[in-house]
């Protein structure tokens, strides 16, 4: 059984999956979706959940720097609730402050072009969210 991590944005969802031991997170893909229709990501997300026998979903919770939850955070909470009810899998919200900035910094340090960064930033952010969660469970 594995854990999946999601970086949920307005237009895309970055996806990462843990190894079977729950030690490491690997970025898998970026799913394009329509935020107003939570079901719009299901056709791509469900096969990943099934293939990896996911038993937990970690959804990044974007908080404001002062710790409050704004509109983006509320949308993530609603989507996490949708995932829990749709897939019957435990769903955890995880503070994702600065993960996209961390992912961007890593990719810049790797000398990746802006065009290539744009394609992988969301799955990298999902991997950082998931790895952060896994690290606290060790």
TrEMBL record:
Could be a nuclease involved in processing of the 5'-end of pre-16S rRNA. Residues 1-103 form the YqgF/RNase H-like domain. The keyword Cytoplasm applies. SUPFAM superfamilies: Ribonuclease H-like. The lineage of its organism: Bacteria, Bacillati, Bacillota, Bacilli, Bacillales. This is Putative pre-16S rRNA nuclease. It is found in: Cytoplasm. GO terms for biological process: rRNA 5'-end processing. Belongs to the YqgF HJR family. CDD domains: YqgF. PANTHER family: POLYNUCLEOTIDYL TRANSFERASE, RIBONUCLEASE H-LIKE SUPERFAMILY PROTEIN. Its EC number is 3.1.-.-. Keywords: Cytoplasm, Hydrolase, Nuclease, Ribosome biogenesis. GO terms for molecular function: hydrolase activity, acting on ester bonds; nuclease activity. GO terms for cellular component: cytosol. The gene is ruvX. It comes from Aquibacillus salsiterrae.
């Amino acid at each position: 059984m594995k854990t999946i991590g999601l970086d949920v944005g307005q237009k895309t969802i970055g996806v990462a999956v843990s190894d079977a031991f729950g030690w490491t997170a690997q970025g898998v893909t970026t799913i394009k979706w329509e935020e107003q229709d939570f079901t719009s990501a299901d056709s791509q997300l469900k096969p990943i959940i099934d293939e990896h026998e996911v038993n937990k979903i970690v959804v990044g919770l974007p908080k404001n720097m002062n710790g409050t939850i704004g509109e983006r955070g509320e949308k993530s909470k609603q989507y996490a609730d949708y995932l829990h009810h749709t897939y019957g899998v435990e769903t955890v919200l995880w503070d994702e402050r600065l993960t996209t900035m961390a992912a961007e910094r890593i990719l810049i340090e790797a000398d990746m072009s802006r065009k290539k960064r744009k394609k992988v930033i969301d799955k990298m952010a999902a991997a950082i969210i998931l790895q952060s969660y896994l690290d606290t469970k060790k």
